[in-house]
Design a protein that fits this description.
alpha+beta, 7 helices, 4 strands, globular
């Protein structure tokens, strides 16, 4: 096992519903360390950079409209196997398939409004941390 850094973002639905503290608390209770946090509004250019692998997909316009609809909270987390630990805490992308006890299983409404985004591997973590924290 190795100490890793990863990127987590509370999406506009999570911020609007007042779930930022709940999300942070769940990662802290797992023993991860919050290294950096910032609240911001994502514009179209930043959204295209962040979701570059989805730009040509049919669902991208809906994703773009959603992610730019309100503030988000971007976070850098670290800890032992942080990427896989965070993904486990978040749960499956589709809240209907997410296990109870996970963020998406307990709090998510639909696949497009699933509270959080998290890096899926070391390369995406490095890229996303660079986009949001320089």
């Amino acid at each position: 096992m190795a100490t890793e850094r990863t990127f987590i973002m509370v999406k506009p639905d999570g911020v609007a519903r007042g779930l930022v503290g709940e999300v942070i608390s769940r990662f802290e209770r797992k023993g991860l360390t919050l290294e950096n946090v910032r609240m911001l509004e994502i514009d179209e250019e930043l959204a295209r950079r962040h979701y570059e692998e989805h730009v040509e997909k049919p669902f991208f316009p809906e994703l773009l409209e959603f992610i730019t609809s309100g503030p988000v909270v971007a976070m850098a987390w670290s800890g032992e196997s942080a990427i896989s630990v965070c993904r486990g805490v978040m749960g499956a992308t589709d809240p209907k398939q997410a296990t109870p006890g996970t963020i998406r299983g307990d709090l998510g409404l639909m696949v497009t409004h699933n509270i959080v985004h998290g890096s899926d591997g070391p390369e995406s973590a490095a890229r996303e941390l660079g986009i949001f924290f320089g």
